[in-house]
Amino acid sequence: MSLVGDPGCQPFLHSGLRGVGFGMVTDGGASPQQVRVVVTFEALAGAGHVNIIRFPAALACFESLRSRVEAAASTKFDRIGPRVQAFEGLPTILLMTGDPM
């Protein structure tokens, strides 16, 4: 089971994790499950080869890399499967600098 983008979910600032959060849903199961994804500013900066200090720059970088970020989140979800931990009430995938994008 993999993840697909949730078109109804807008990206948001996750200040606690210094990242951009967004929603995805499981694909291939009986009923789709919402999964939150947070990609850190540092991971975005590395993938986009840019300097990111504040949310507007992170959001712009996220938008330009969205398909790569979503693919990385889906791959990580496939790899860890049922071990996805809940964070703030939702199953959450955290993409950091060590995750390929």
Overview of this protein structure:
With 101 residues, the protein is of the alpha+beta class. It has one domain: Double Stranded RNA Binding Domain, CATH 3.30.160.140. It is built from 2 helices and 6 strands; from the N terminus they run E-E-E-E-H-H-E-E. The chain has helices at residues 41-48, 55-80; strands spanning 2-5, 12-14, 19-27, 34-40, 86-87, 90-95. Helix 1 packs across helix 2 (55-80).
The biggest beta sheet reads:
6 strands, mixed
Stretches where pLDDT falls below 50 for ≥5 residues? none
Q: What general outline do the C-alpha atoms trace? A: globular
- Just name the CATH architecture: 2-Layer Sandwich
H-E order: EEEEHHEE
Oligomer: single chain
Number of domains: 1
CATH domain fold name: Double Stranded RNA Binding Domain
Q: What's the number of helices?
A: 2
Radius of gyration: 13 Å
The CATH homologous superfamily name equals: Shew3726-like
Mean pLDDT: 92
CATH class: Alpha Beta
Give the helix proportion (percent range): 25-40%
Kindly, what is the distance between the CA atoms of the first and last residues, rounded to a whole number of angstroms? 19 Å
How many strand units?
A: 6
